[in-house]
Structure formats: C-alpha cells, structure tokens
Amino acid sequence: MLDSHNLRTVKGMYIGGNWVAGQGSFDDINPSDGSLYARIPDGGRAEARMAIEAAQAAFPAWSSLMFQERAHYMLKIAEIWEKRSAEFVAAAQAEGGGWFGKGMFEAGYVPEVFRAAAGVLYGSIGEVLPSEHGKFSTAVRYPMGVISVISPWNMPGILTARGFAFPLAAGNTIVLKPSEDTPYAGGLFFAEVLEEAGLPKGVFNVITCSRERVQDMGDEMIENPLVKGVSFTGSTPVGRQIAAKAGAHLKKCCVELGGKDSLIVLEDADMDRATSAASFGSFMHQGQICMSVEKVLVQDSVYADFLRQFVARASKLKTGDTKDKANVIGPLINERQVARVRHQIEDALAKGAKAVLGGRIWDRYVEPTILTHVTPDMDVWRDETFGPVAIVVPFKTDAEAIAMNNDTEYGLSAGIITRNEERALRMARQLETGMCHINCSSINDEPHVPFGGSKASGLGRHGGKWSLETFTETRWITLDRGHRPYPQVF
C-alpha cells in the first residue's frame, strides 16, 4: 500500500550543477512494506543529452587541474559522506530493504573508496621507454572525457562509488544513472554530497528515469559521441547488451556482472569458520550480492557434519521488515526478483531437491533456504539466484569440486575453506573465476584491488590502478634528442 506521509524530499536530477525537474515523476517504493518512499524525476534522452553536454563542457578545466587538487576534492567527498552517513543508512534501509548492519558497512566503506582514489593520484601515470634513436620516449595516461556510469540497486553506496570515483579522480567527468529501484541512495544522495564538496559545475551529473525509460536513457548514455567510456554494474543479460553497444561504437567499457559463486569446504576445514562463511556468504543482504555464495560444495567425509551445523547457524537468522534491527533478512528488492527465486525453489523441489531449511515465501520476503539433493538439470544449479538460497552438494575429489565450480557460464568469485593453503592455491589456479579467497567467503572487496570476473561475469576490473587503466587513454609521447635520420631521398 502506498502512503504519501513522510516522503523523502528530492530536489531533482543534478545536471550542470543545477537541480532539474524531469518530464514527470515515478514512484520509489519501500520494498519492506510497499509504502511510497519518494517521487523521483523521470527523465529520458533529452536529460541524458543535457547531462552529457554539461560534462563535456566541464572536462577541459577539470582534467587540467593539478592532480593534488583533484585528490583534495576526493578527500573532501569522503569527509562529507562520513558526516552524512546516518542519512545514507536510513535511505539504504527504506529504499533498498537492507539490514541496518549492511547499511552501516556500506556507509563505512564508501569514504575509503574516495580516499583510495585520492591515493592513486600520487602514483605513476606512465613510464619511460627505451628508444632506438635516443629519443626521450614516454607512455603516459590521460583522462578520456565523459564517462557514463550505470549503477545497481543491491549495494547502492559501494557499487556506485566504485563505478565513478577512480575515473573522476583521474580527470574524467561523470554522468551517473542509478537504478530505478534505489535512485536516491545510489544517485541523488551522491549528488548532494558532491555538491556540498564544491565540485565545479558539470563535473558530476546524476540523471534518473523510470523502468519504462531505461532503454532510451541508457542508449543515449552509450551512443552519444561525446561519451568516451561506460562503467556498468548489474545483471549479465543487460551487461551483454551494454558491452555490445559500446563495442559497436568502439568505446571502452567495464562491466561487472552476475555470478554463481561457490564455497568449497575441504575435509580438513575448521567447521565453525566454514559454516560462518557459508551463512554470511549465502544470506548477507538476502543473497542479493553479485558474489554471494550460491553453491556450497562440501567434501563427502564432512558433508553430514557441515550440513547439520550450517542449518543450525542459518536457522537463527530472522526475516522481516528491516526497520526492526533484529531482522537480518529483509525483503527482496521487487516482485521480479521474488518470482525468479520462487521459480528456482519450486523447480528444484519438483525435480527431487529437498529443502532442509526455509522455503517459505510471503510478500517480498524469502526465508533463508538450504537445498540438498540438487542436480545439474535444475535451474538453481547453473542460473544466478540472487536470493537467500544456498545449495549444498557433496564431492569426493578436488578435481570434482573444481569441475562443479566451473560448471556455469559465470566466473566471478569463489571461496575455499581448508587448513592446507598449498592445496587451496593449487585449486584456485584451476577455478574459472576472477577472484578466489582462501579461508574466507566469496564476498570480498577492498577499494584498491582488481575487482571483476571472467566468462559471463564481466569485462575489465574496478578498483585502484585497474580502474585508471580502464578509464584513461595511454599515449606515446617522444622528444627527439638523437636526431632520428630520415632516408636521403626525402
């Protein structure tokens, strides 16, 4: 039910340093209770074009600033974000249905993204190369221009900040479109923070639209000739479309997509660590994280012991409206996600799987669910779930576990729990994933690391110097000091 009381006040879209109304508005719904959180400006191609042109106009001056000046802006953003972090947590809970603890984690993480972006600016921006003719030969990185950033709803603070902080610090200008499910926490809140930090007009822009206009706005953000790069975090089907369109226009893109991540529990694992990693990895934020644990692969000799302890641990998680801080498992973001998870559970049960925990669904809530007797013909085996569902499967040999992990189009992250680090490193080299974490969950991130996946989990890397590699151009510049000779005929 929609309740118009206590609506979040939204100033508008943020374009060229001004707050701009859209062509109308759309409802931003609290997924916990169906109430109206805010009315958000509904834009389209025209607003996207306006924002891109504002960003292009701001690019020469922003890219010409001394590196330390841009670094100081990044530090100022971090400082203001920390001051306003409680506002973000409240928005992430109400708009995204997140648990209070998850909001606090994001709120603490985001400032570190901007500090890491500031720090990267004090590192190398190129190198000196040998030259055949005694030239002073350099390879130097330069900012590209306008970067389009399309961010997701599941971690609206972290994944938005990571998408634009490093390109912005490098001297690019930004047009951000947050998800229509979290347009404030993932977009307009950032606009308020960066405006307060005093960024020059047009350097950072935020545009919003309803689901019905996503195609138009997104196409303009990719196809507009002023846009030089695209940063996207979201689902693999949408990421494929964005990467294809960017490729058709010969534009750089970094797309971080879905996953079907495994936690591999070996026979010598510490059971407390293993079950804790499985519970956190599977059920943090209702499993709505790209690197959530969706497959728990357990060596057969410890399978029964692990399953008993995993079920006991997960059964303590409470599900409900996250206004109550005791409820760790909140709602799924929308009805489409609920339908997806419901289908996978029902398909698995119909084909012989057993729910040893959970399985109950009401409104947008799905209880933590653990499935056993899962086989490769079930949709839950290969397709991303993006919900609080974990499958637990026994294996005999390391080679079998590796094959099970790799039996999917995805390849984002993985975890291995064992006391034998040498064995785990040997396995990690054979896992088809962009990341692997030994004695930890597949859910791991730090601002300065190369974050990204292989196969259908993405192209490129976010974070630290790897973001700079993606969103700068490398130019070869020489000074001829050796008087390179030309053929006499000329």
TrEMBL record:
CDD domains: ALDH_VaniDH_like
Pfam families per the UniProt record, alphabetical: Aldedh
Domain of life: Bacteria
Aldehyde dehydrogenase domain mapped to chain residues: 19-477
Keywords: NAD, Oxidoreductase
Coiled coil: none
Family to which the UniProt record says this protein belongs: Belongs to the aldehyde dehydrogenase family.
Protein name stated in the entry: Aldehyde dehydrogenase family protein
Organism the protein comes from: Plastorhodobacter daqingensis
